[in-house]
Amino acid sequence: MARVVYSEEFRIEAVKQVTKNGYSISDTAERLGVHPDSLRNWIKRLESPQAIQKHQILDESQAEIKKLQKELKRVTEERDILKKAAVYFASHTN
Q1: CA–CA separation, 36 vs 23, rounded Å?
Q2: pLDDT classification of 2: cutoffs 50, 70, 90
Q3: Residue 7 CA from chain centroid, whole number
Q4: The pLDDT value given to residue 92
Q5: How far apart are the C-alpha atoms of 38 and 78, rounded to whole Å?
Q6: What pLDDT shows up at residue 25?
Q7: Is residue 22 predicted with pLDDT exceeding 90?
Q8: Which residues form a coiled coil (predicted)?
C-alpha cells in the first residue's frame, strides 16, 4: 500500500474540524479518508505548545503583512495624486 503524504494545510484543517468544530476523530478521519491514528498524531503535534506558539507567530505575521499591504496601497494612491497635482501645477504656472 502506497503511503499518502498530506499537505500541512490539509492536516491543519483536519485538526480544526476536531478541535474547533467539535467533530469526533473517528467521523472526521472517515470523512477525510485518513486513519484515525494519523489524525490523533496530527492533533498531538499541532496542539503542542510549540506548534501553538508557531501558529500565533504566523498569524501575527500575516496580520502585519495585511496591515503593511493596506498601508502601501494608501501611500501609492497618495503618491499618484501628488504626481498628478505636480503635473497640473507645473502646466498652469506662468
Answers
A1: 13
A2: low
A3: 14
A4: 85
A5: 52
A6: 93
A7: no
A8: 51-85
* Mean pLDDT (the chain, rounded): 89
Structural fold of domain 1-47: Arc Repressor Mutant, subunit A (1.10.10)
How many CB atoms are located within 10 Å of the residue 32 CB?
14
Rounded average pLDDT over 38-63: 83
**pLDDT number for residue 94:** 64
Residue matched to cell numbers 498569524:
59
What would the mean pLDDT of 77-90 be, rounded to a whole number?
95
Q: How far apart are CA 60 and CA 29, in angstroms?
A: 30
CA distance 72 to 66: 10
User: Could you give the C-alpha distances from 55 to 6, 28, 50, 64, 71, in angstroms and in order?
Assistant: 18, 22, 9, 14, 24
Closest CA to 45 of 26, 27, 63, 19: 19
- Delimit the domains of the chain by residue range: 1-47
DSSP state, residue 3? P
